[in-house]
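Justification of computing resources. Each target in the renewal requires a structure prediction run like the one illustrated here; the chain below, 487 residues long, is used simply to show the kind of job we budget for.
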Amino acid sequence: MSAGVKSYAAVDLGASSGRVMVGRVSPDSVELSEAHRFPNRPVRVPEGLRWDILALYGGVLDGLRAAGAHCGGRLASVGIDSWAVDYGLLDADGALLGNPVHYRDARTEGVAGEVWATVPAAELYAATGIQYAPFNTLYQLAAARASEQFAHARRLLLVPDLLAYWLTGEQGTELTNASTTQLVDPRTRDWSYEVAERLGIDLGLFPPLRRPGDPAGTLRPQVLAETGLAGPVPVTAVGSHDTASAVAAVPATGERFAYICTGTWSLAGLELSAPVLTEESRAANFTNELGLDGTVRYLRNIMGLWLLQECVRAWGGPDLGTLLREAATVPALRSVVDAGDEAFLAPGRMPERIAEACRASGQPVPGTPAETTRCILDSLALAHRRAVLDAQRLADHPVDVVYLVGGGTRNALLCQLTADACGLPVVAGATEAAALGNVLVQARADGLAGDLAALRGLLVRTQPLTRYTPRGDTGQWRAAQARLAAR
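Resulting structure tokens:
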């Protein structure tokens, strides 16, 4: 390893795959390489949809072994990020009580109304700033608390904290991910004790809060033996909600920017210094999640490339590059759907559901995979436009540029359509933004990098960026939005 360069392993778990990346960082450089990638396949069992957490942990161990091979068995640190809201329950001996429930499981159907009967939706938003989504941890807990499993639970660990516990034997609750539970006050950056008390939720189930950069233990001797790593290897708390890590890796040079983190979900919004807790913000379904260094991720959840992923699965896995080239020849905005509609949340029959939505709104029904793909990409770009415009208005925070990071950066058509729809330049940054942000927080905790602005400056100097300039005016996008609003 070159002098002044250290290697960090980023465990980055997405809803459809996991990866372990190695980041080599010095005060003036950052390089990211993939050590190991593995599938994340949820399993439907008689009681519902579950995460295969043991397979994920096995993938993490395999990845750490591969990461060690990349750097002579020596890692300066390990950090873990994943999707939000889901958790595992531990018994009094620290053993896991069953596989974590998948957020797309049907158990929370109708639960929100029961919660709101005790704490009305407007009061809940004013206290926590978290948008309504049926899978929020709060509603999962309300659905689970009458179960036998919950009765035996003595500890609750969000998914990245659960994996960190298995690696180190130490427990904690990382703050950026905790903020998605709808149990944190974004003003105090601590638990919302009043909400928990009114809903009968025991916050003692959660271990103490950690902040990004805090120590999270060291790899257990058994883990070192299994992975071949030379100890001690610390585990560092990062922005363990993958969106928090991805936003940290947005290559912004000022404050007048919006971001879109694209993948299975699209998370589109602004980085603010304080939450927006107005009733208008709640009605617009914006969320106030916590980010690095006292920031707030003010954003809207959009269904994202999940729509295309499910269609590709239903079509038997056609070549994506060919499909996108064919979609580019389909007339623009022929048909659009609401990419935030809960009707698209569950897996299965996605092409048919998109066709049904177009038919119900009186639009042409896509007849080929290319037409359906174009409908999806136009719909996502339209949803990105709405989120960026609404966020600026609600937060009184104008922007000059949109940064797009994550898996969608590989999709040049989506990037260009987003620029066209927003009427703003789009700068596409790192595809593996969550892993990159994960690594940079570890390096900062290790003394190799400065504040958030310094981290982003390092990215601007070292990462390839692609700029998309908007074409034409936004009139056709306004018209498409009017069609959706008239449904």
